[in-house]
Amino acid sequence: MMFRRLALIGTGLIGGSLALALRERGEVGEVVGYSRRLDTRLAAERLGLIDRPADSIAEAVAGADLVFVATPVKAMDAVLGELAACLPGDALVTDGGSVKGAVVERARAHLSAGQLARFVPGHPIAGRERSGPEAATADLYRGHRVILTPIEENRAEDVARIEAMWQATGARIERLEVAHHDHVLAATSHLPHAAAYAMVSALARLAERYEVFRYAAGGFRDFTRIASSDPVMWRDICLDNRDEILVMLDHYRAELDCLRDMLESADGEKIEHYFHEAKAVRDALYPVAQANGANPVSEADETGR
Amino acid sequence: MMFRRLALIGTGLIGGSLALALRERGEVGEVVGYSRRLDTRLAAERLGLIDRPADSIAEAVAGADLVFVATPVKAMDAVLGELAACLPGDALVTDGGSVKGAVVERARAHLSAGQLARFVPGHPIAGRERSGPEAATADLYRGHRVILTPIEENRAEDVARIEAMWQATGARIERLEVAHHDHVLAATSHLPHAAAYAMVSALARLAERYEVFRYAAGGFRDFTRIASSDPVMWRDICLDNRDEILVMLDHYRAELDCLRDMLESADGEKIEHYFHEAKAVRDALYPVAQANGANPVSEADETGR
């Protein structure tokens, strides 16, 4: 058994699924859970995600040797502030936030040097359409990537323990620099979400939008699926990773300008070449994704915590 | 039986599926098919999509009272040119092209006044991952939209016959002005395809693209699915509907600029509102799409003929 007692701060899909996976593997003794909302805590207990609910972060982490912060990124500032006052001396802490730079900044602002050393930031890239305790499953992370972004303060053996913990869930662990994680996710997740919201907005502004949308078919549906993601989560991700997203937005705008020029000049050869290159890259990406054992994914995938 | 003999110009997914659907409903007597490639014609015969292959367009349409042009839009110029020389006097003609303005222009350039009057342009919005005769099915059009774009030269009863023909396949028929069709499709299909190709290209240009793509998850996969569409078809659609696509591209770029400004000024309230509005529109679109009985769709949906 890796951990004596797991404290979940946030008992929804992400936290609950980790608890189920570790329990199934016998890697955790007791699971105590705290959520801001009472009904979420009680649902988590009723569903067997946690052994008992706690009425405060302090009560949840008392006696815990592992703390998993699985709240929306926006809430982590307050959570880390409270943790600083009640974290047991031997407890390891990790999180599931979609943006690492901002989380590490908040950790540095709130945690003591000793606490910071035991905080190993992470980001499980997994999700489902539904969220909340009811959506939690023991195999949510199986075959999915979990990116750990250790900080210089971390001790190698603590990072190794968090990595082993995630390996027990069947996830594929990667390590990235904090800034590099935010750069990569801005490109593969944050930019596409922003672009999808903008696409829907562009059409919604058309005078004949109601009619236009009647003819939206599969391509449009797939393309805009991520525009159904939670607006508050994505607002927070955009604010927390603003600089990287702005850079990627500018790259994307430059591509659209370049494509617009080819179209303007009706350069069929260039357009075909451009589409051909993009298709080749995208098609090549697929077998890779399969080989990586990525589960079938949903619009809620990487919708951000 | 609606038609004595159907001539398919193009015996792939789109043409073959129409033939199967009409035959299943007993709405067509004989089906003769021509494709530029001999193996496509022979495959269509072997698969029972057509009763016999023809070695030329002239041979295919001889004695036909319905001609369905189901070739890529680019080929339609040559096809319409040949049809002008061999079209039986009583034959109705329709097509499956993704862009109607350019097709009608070519029809006007090639067909006689009498032939033009019997050409009722159309666009079935349906497709599959796979194409070619092997992919044809009798129910491809069931529950999908078929947009007819009658021209002023058409006689009401001829348009009604083409409409009844498509109704026999289980499709939901709409009528739009030619220019309006191209405007609507530029918004719901052509722009998203261009934007998806540009998104893949933007990431592919990053120095660390190989690493970036390793972290691409479900959101990115859905968002870029249509970037796997056929580059030649999409080159032709872009060229044929250039003006409308340019207008939509500018709308889209304006949205991205607007989102970029909110992000630049870190205006969380505006960003949340923007995302919220887009999500509301997109979520509302779904039940509509379901009520319309649209089949589950694929990356090849509306990839253009």
UniProtKB/TrEMBL annotation, chains A, B:
Tagged with keyword Oxidoreductase: yes
Domain Prephenate/arogenate dehydrogenase: 4-293
Domain of life: Bacteria
Keyword set, alphabetical order: Oxidoreductase
Pfam families found in the cross-reference section: PDH_C, PDH_N
SUPFAM superfamilies for the chain: 6-phosphogluconate dehydrogenase C-terminal domain-like, NAD(P)-binding Rossmann-fold domains
Key word Oxidoreductase present: yes
InterPro entries: 6-PGluconate_DH-like_C_sf, NAD(P)-bd_dom_sf, PDH_C, PDH_N, Preph/Arog_dehydrog, Prephen_DH
Coiled-coil residues: none
Protein name, UniProt field: Prephenate dehydrogenase/arogenate dehydrogenase family protein
Organism lineage string: Bacteria, Pseudomonadati, Pseudomonadota, Gammaproteobacteria, Chromatiales
